[in-house]
Specification:
Blueprint (H helix, E strand, L loop, with lengths): L1 E6 L11 H4 L4 H14 L3 E6 L3 H9 L1 H4 L2 E5 L8 H10 L3 E5 L21 E4 L3 H16 L1
Parallel strand pairs: 1-2, 1-3, 3-4, 4-5
Helix pairs in contact: 2-6, 3-5
Length: 144
């Protein structure tokens, strides 16, 4: 089983960007934790981060041939990107949306996700654990 882990814009700044909201872990720390759990679950993961919407769409399109599912933190594109939504829908593979912070305790405009309706689930507000819970849920979904 192979999962694509997609990180959206500004997540490359984790650890230094608003640590009170996003914590002090870097993206490399998060990826290492995901990779460790993936190994325990007998799953292979590949990571991709971009600040560019088109690059994210192109990478998601590769899922159709090369991956069994997607774990995605679309970051700010959660609230704006019909293109990412449509790419996820087009590849017809299960996707889980995750967020470090709780979207629903933040600004009103962050309460809407274009991505969630095309995913099997959404997990937010648990920091690193959002990714780990999302990976476990996706693997379980794929096995069922």
């Amino acid at each position: 089983m192979k999962i694509l882990v997609v990180h959206g814009p500004n997540l490359n700044l984790l650890g230094e960007r608003e640590p009170e909201k996003y914590g002090k872990r870097t993206l490399e720390d998060i990826n290492a934790s995901i990779k460790k759990l993936a190994g325990e679950l007998g799953t292979e993961v590949e990571f991709f981060q971009s600040n560019c919407e088109g690059e994210l769409v192109t990478k998601i399109q590769e899922v159709k041939q090369n991956f069994d599912g997607i774990l995605i933190n679309p970051a700010a594109y959660t609230h704006t990107s019909v293109a990412i939504r449509d790419a996820i829908l087009a590849v017809t593979k299960p996707c889980v949306e995750v967020h470090l912070s709780n979207l629903y305790t933040r600004e009103e405009f962050r309460h809407h996700s274009y991505i969630a309706p095309v995913c099997v689930g959404q997990i937010s507000g648990f920091g690193l654990d959002s990714y780990l819970l999302g990976l476990k849920a996706l693997v379980n979904h794929l096995k069922s």
